[in-house]
Design a protein that fits this description.
single chain, alpha+beta, Beta-Lactamase, Arc Repressor Mutant, subunit A, 5-stranded antiparallel beta sheet, elongated
Length: 286
């Protein structure tokens, strides 16, 4: 997924009576107090999420800031970013139309997991060698991704993406620690902001329904793909290695290999890359 060549700079109101923000490294308590005051002040304003992004950027250099609203009964909604939203909406059309179900972070929506999470900590082993990573993450240049996962109610959560792209390096332990230190503040702000947003922005039309991954898998070869083969295909698409699939399904690694061989023969493909291509085409036709 190619990203927009430029990110939009936020234009915030000038508040002449506000002192400059303290240095979060030299005066962390004063900085946190100052940022909390800015968040409270901005809560009722259109630029509220911009202030959230501004404060996180003061903790450590960021490349990307993205906010998504996820729910198990509908497709995800892109809410805010430091990229042009129309451009990003177009570039992430496949993701929003079904690719999101392969995202390691999707499990947090289904299982109700919350907190500040890191991609490398929740992804399957060898995920960075998977087709999903190579097509979705590596194409964007993302080298590290943290997300604040904030629950709104069961089956719905807001994800605040904090990303680094090349040539920047991954977040170090100190930077991750600073992000973790403000998790309670971020969570409280997001909960309040979206409660207000939900009251004020009733959707004129119903959201697009959730994408059915298993249905799409069976549609690759109707009537021929077994339930176990569907399990294998789903895990392959999500970036699991044969060893990881065997552990998840509690079967032998050789059995996984046999299933993969049968799947390739039924669908008429020869590799995991071709399987992923077939899945992407199915999203485009959906």
């Amino acid at each position: 997924m190619a990203r927009a060549p430029e990110r939009l700079a936020y234009s915030l109101p000038v508040m002449s009576n506000r002192l400059p923000s303290p240095d979060p490294l030299q005066r962390p308590l004063a900085w946190a107090s100052s940022w909390a005051a800015r968040l409270v002040q901005a809560q009722r304003e259109p630029h509220a999420l911009h202030v959230l992004r501004q404060g996180l950027g003061e903790l450590a250099p960021l490349t990307s800031f993205i906010v998504f609203d996820f729910a198990i009964d509908r497709q995800p909604a892109l809410i805010d970013s430091n990229y042009d939203l129309d451009y990003l909406m177009h570039q992430m059309s496949q993701y929003r139309s079904g690719l999101y179900l392969l995202d390691p972070f999707w499990r947090t929506v289904v299982e109700g997991q919350t907190g500040l999470l890191r991609l490398d900590d929740i992804a399957p082993e060898d995920f960075r060698q998977s087709e999903y990573f190579l097509r979705h993450y590596q194409a964007t240049g993302v080298v590290d991704e943290l997300r604040y996962v904030v629950p709104l109610h069961p089956g719905r959560s807001v994800h605040v993406f904090v990303e680094r792209e090349a040539p920047l390096s991954a977040f170090d332990a100190g930077e991750r620690g600073r992000f973790a230190d403000v998790e309670a503040l971020v969570r409280t702000f997001v909960e309040a902001h979206f409660a207000r947003r939900d009251r004020q922005r009733r959707q004129a039309s119903p959201p697009r329904p959730a994408f059915d991954l298993r249905e799409q898998i069976h549609a690759m070869q109707p009537g021929q793909i077994t339930a176990r083969e569907s399990d294998i295909i789903e895990l392959m698409l999500k970036g699991h290695s044969a060893k990881s699939m065997a552990r998840v399904l509690d079967i032998e690694e050789g059995t996984v290999t046999n299933h993969k061989r049968n799947i390739y023969a039924k669908i008429g493909i020869h590799s995991q890359a071709q399987l992923f291509d077939r899945f992407l085409r199915s999203l485009s036709m959906g």
